[in-house]
Amino acid sequence: ITFTYMKIILRLVITAVLVLLIANFMSGVHVASFVTSLIVAFVLGIINIFIKPIMILFTLPFTIFTLGLFLLVINAIVIIMCTKIVGGFTVDSFWTALVFSVVLSILQSISYKIFIKE
What we know:
Blueprint: H1 3-25, E1 29-31, H2 34-50, H3 52-58, H4 60-65, H5 70-85, E2 89-91, H6 94-115
Antiparallel strand pairs: 1-2
Helix pairs in contact: 1-2, 1-6, 2-5, 5-6
């Protein structure tokens, strides 16, 4: 396995651990198991690669008008989409998804800086 694939696998594992960790501390987010959180991490990655850029493109006027804050709404929608795809992963409301996505993004940024060296 090359170094690039190792980084991708490490990112998936870090995201899975963070999803499980946040679900344990945040009410309204439920993850059945670590395997479920791995699937959530994978599905989030796929959605972020293929669907999120299209959503950003279609909502560009809203994003510009709100000075980028609408991207938080897109992130919450991505989390809700993930709950529809992955069984065993639920988020109680849109606002919970919004907070979850913000916390996950912040913790991912910190964790990637610590554990993944470029």
